Amino acid sequence: MSQVAREPRILIVGLGLIGSSLAAGLRRAGVAGEIRACDPHLDELTRAREMGLVDGGGACLAEQLDGVNLVVLAVPVLAMCDVMHELATDRHRAAPDLVITDVGSTKATIREAAVAAFGSLPANLVLGHPIAGSEKSGLDAVDPALFEGHKVILTPAPSTSTDAVGRVRALWATVGAEVLEMDVDRHDAVLARTSHLPHLLAFSLVDTLARQDERLDIFRYAAGGFRDFTRIAGSDPVMWRDIFAANQSAVLDALDEFEAGLARLRHAVEAGDADAMLSTLDRASHARRYFDSLLNQRSYQAEYQMQESTSLCYRAGPGGAVQGRIRVPGDKSVSHRSIMLGALAEGVTEVSGFLEGEDSLATLQAFREMGVAIEGPHQGRVTIHGVGLHGLQVPAGPLYVGNAGTAMRLFAGLLAGQAFDTELTGDTSLTRRPMGRVADPLREMGAVIDTAEGGRPPLKIRGGQALKGIDYDMPMASAQVKSCLLLAGLYADSETRVREPAPTRDHTERMLGGLGYRVERHGDTCWLQGGGALQAAPIDVPADISSAAFFLVAAAITPGADLVLEHVGVNPTRIGVINILQRMGADLRLENEHEVGGEPVADLHVRYAPLHGIDIPADQVPLAIDEFPALFVAAANAEGVTRLRDAGELRVKESDRLQAMADGFARLGVEHTLYDEGIDIMGRNTDGPNYRGADVDSLGDHRIAMAFAVAALRAEGAVNVRDCANVATSFPGFIELARRVGLTIEEQQEGA
Ligand code: S3P
After folding, report:
1. Which of 179, 396, 578, 717 has its CA 20 to 30 A from that of 78?
2. Could you tell me which residue ranges the Prephenate/arogenate dehydrogenase domain spans (predicted)?
3. Exactly one of 242, 626, 697, 723 is catalytic; which is it?
């Protein structure tokens, strides 16, 4: 249940668009208390009363303060100073539990005004900013739904009363807004870029064109682009003058960054540099769509460290069928590498089957930020204008790789060899994952890398180091570590050799070979010589066996199932899931086997057959490392015990996958015993359901979310899975495909 404002008497100071819309929204929500207003324009006050928005009011603040519990200051930013002084003088007239809040677009100057007026920052003052508005202003534009679904940022200080914050939260929740918190400086820096700079540019562009209009008659011919770009130049000039003045230094910083970017683009146009133009335009066009998807799902939090109050959940109904022919999206490991190697190659690399998931898109975006022109993705097709091993440019800021451990670890290797400094950051899950495993051997090669405490991200990589080849014995079976070192090895003065304790996926070696770079292997060791070059070549990304795994298991546990998964990559270093399911008794065949671009692919045909528990062979663990959440669901539906050991790596994936699955199993009633590096699962395969329905938490881990969605096929009741937005990192369209083969599953937004 969301909170509702329970203030006996609210006073809104300033009946502009925001003040009047707040009054209208509160009225519409049916708040019980009295709403008063204070505004110097008495005719506006009369109108507001006639419209039923307020119960009364007047022009003198002191007179309106009597018995007021909550004051909302909705006056222009520069008028705040005077209003704060009046408030400070007459606050004794208000109720003893008075809370004050404001709606100003800048926060530092308003905080200063408050300190000047009150002597110190009052504990009952909660500064706030609704991110809503319109180019229209005043009571004429009043809109009771103005704040619905919009964000309101509160910027409480450590000394602010939590009760006061709670009451201001309730105020905004009542009119349908989503309330977030951040500190004042961050608010001003973020808003300078997302709101103040665009307004400044729109005003300036329209003004410049207006001056030329007489001569060129521009406005007569102005069409869509002009209209879209300049709508906000119709906004209230006084309000915006105040905002630019009040947030001067952050606005100037944002303007400096913008001018530098504009100068670069100007230069590209002037020089007729088609690649540089394309690089900027493509980067911008994709950044726009990428951020859109981030903003609409989860990563607003990741980007701006705000608090998210809703998350995406799955409701997977019990039972269902698994029938048909589908193709799951492209392989994540190969997609990451296609961008990395294509960017470092000489010439144009055409990629098909690229995974348009958040993880691989983050890699793509990072290369755009390093000046690589990349077209697409358009239906899995990406064209990369390679810049060669030494052609990357310094990015403007930290490279954000979202949820992707692969991106961060492989980037660490290739960025260690660049001439410029870089910083790698990621989302909350990635920030918890160990990076010492790459930073340590890279340091042995001569790289200079700082990590946060415990070898965690962010990684700060100092450029301009001369790297030397090493002979490295990996302490864990990790393709990411191996690949990281091979990529750094491209920049080393001699040979880089990596020995793996068990075979791990070898896409990096194969793909380097495909782009003409010699990588050798003997037994458990592979090596390459630095100083060569990569030549562009087409890359065909097969369907991801790690995504296919959820459907393999779905079919393997569902009586009557008959499913074909087309064009799946069956590289021998990835087929642990096939080997394990077959050993458990699955009827799983490879059909239409062939090779594309150096990678074996096949159609996987799976029909229901009863499964039994097995001891998972240790040599299969690295070959199925990402598929265990799905395999555990197979084990829960297999007769007898399935034992897994030597799988401690599962604890440092996107979540602690051993714990996350064990917790979910406990809720479903699947018997199991958890060990440090493994698990025993006591499965059942009855004629009916094999466990009950329950609410489980994916902990934001895409593979845990999909595994429990599949588990619902043999549950007694619905399985509700929390925190599923990250499925978009590896498997966009999962829900649609799942429904297509016969699962009953839907997505829901859930309040946190
Ligand atoms: C990957 C390697 C594996 C795997 C990850 C992708 C890769 O990690 O879990 O999802 O693309 O190299 P480790 O090599 O660290 O086990």
Report:
1. 179
2. 8-299
3. 626
Element (H, E) at 100: strand 99-102
Query: d(Cα 339, Cα 410) in Å, to the nearest integer?
Result: 12
Atom from ligand 1 closest to the CA of residue 410 = 12
Same domain, 497 and 622: no
- Domain of 691, CATH number, reads 3.65.10.10
Which of these, 574, 565, 533, 543, lies nearest to 352 by C-alpha position? 543
Probe target for ligand 1 pocket from 363, 505, 627, with the most ligand atoms within 8 Å of CB: 505
| Enclosing domain of residue 252 | 190-261
Is 703 annotated to bind a ligand? Reply is yes
Helix (H, G, I), strand (E, B) or coil at 648: helix
Check if 333 has its Cβ closer than 6 Å to any atom of ligand 1. Answer: yes
Q: Give 53's DSSP letter.
A: S
In a domain, 730, yes or no: yes
626 assigned to active site:
yes
- Cα(430) to centroid of ligand 1, in Å? 13
Q: Is 2 inside any structural domain?
A: no
Q: How far apart are CA 30 and CA 397, in angstroms?
A: 47
626 in ligand 1 pocket by Cβ < 6 Å? yes
User: Both 520 and 556 in a single domain?
Assistant: no
State what percent of residues in the chain have pLDDT above 70: 96
Ramachandran category for residue 520: left, alpha or beta (phi over 0 → left; psi -120 to 50 → alpha): beta
Examine residue 369 and state whether it is found in any structural domain, yes or no: yes
CA dist 696 to 575, 665, 666, Å? Answer: 28, 9, 9
Q: What atom of ligand 1 comes closest to residue 508's alpha carbon?
A: 12
pLDDT at position 214 over 50: yes
Dmax over CA atoms of the chain, in Å, equals 88
Question: Over the stretch 619-653, which tens digit does the pLDDT of each residue have?
Answer: 999 999 999 999 999 999 999 999 999 999 999 99
The answer on whether 136 is annotated among ligand-binding residues is no
Would you call 688 exposed, middle or buried from its count of C-beta atoms within 10 A (0-12, 13-18, 19+)?
exposed
Q: Does 649 contact ligand 1 (Cβ within 6 A)?
A: yes
Atom 13 in ligand 1: residue holding the nearest Cα: 478
586/523 same-domain check: no
**Residue 430 main-chain phi, psi, to 5 deg:** -65, -35
Where does the pLDDT of residue 301 fall: very low under 50, low under 70, confident under 90, or very high at 90 and above?
Answer: very low
Cα separation, 634 vs 580, whole angstroms = 10
CA of 485 relative to ligand 1 center, distance in Å: 14
- Quick one: CA torsion of 116, 122, 126, 128, rounded to 10 degrees? 0
Strands (E), 200-321: 310-320
Q: Is 193 annotated among the ligand-binding residues? A: no
Does residue 531 sit in the same domain as residue 679? no
Q: How many angstroms is it from 86 CA to the middle of ligand 1?
A: 62
Q: Is 653 annotated for ligand binding?
A: yes
405 annotated ligand binder = yes
Domain boundary among 505, 540, 575: 540
Q: Residue 597's pLDDT is what?
A: 81
Packing angle of the helix pair 17-28, 162-174 (nearest 10 deg)? 80
Q: How confident is the model at residue 5 (pLDDT cuts 50, 70, 90)?
A: confident
Q: Is the pLDDT of residue 551 over 60?
A: yes
Q: How far is the CA of 536 from the centre of ligand 1 (A)?
A: 24
When pLDDT is averaged across residues 372-391 and rounded to a whole number, the result is 93
Question: Per DSSP, what are the bridge partners of residue 101?
Answer: 72, 126
* Pair 568, 437 in one domain: no
Which of 358, 476, 478, 704 is the best mutation target for the ligand 1 pocket, counting ligand atoms within 8 Å of the beta carbon and taking the most?
478
Q: Is residue 356 within 8 Å of residue 380, measured between CB atoms?
A: yes
User: How far is Cα 91 from Cα 733, in angstroms, rounded to an integer?
Assistant: 56
What atom in ligand 1 is closest to the CA of residue 653?
Answer: 9
DSSP helix, strand, coil percent of the chain (3-state; round to 5): 45, 25, 35
In sequence order, the 6+-apart residues with CB closer than 8 A to the CB of 221 are none
Q: How far apart are CA 341 and CA 141, in angstroms?
A: 54
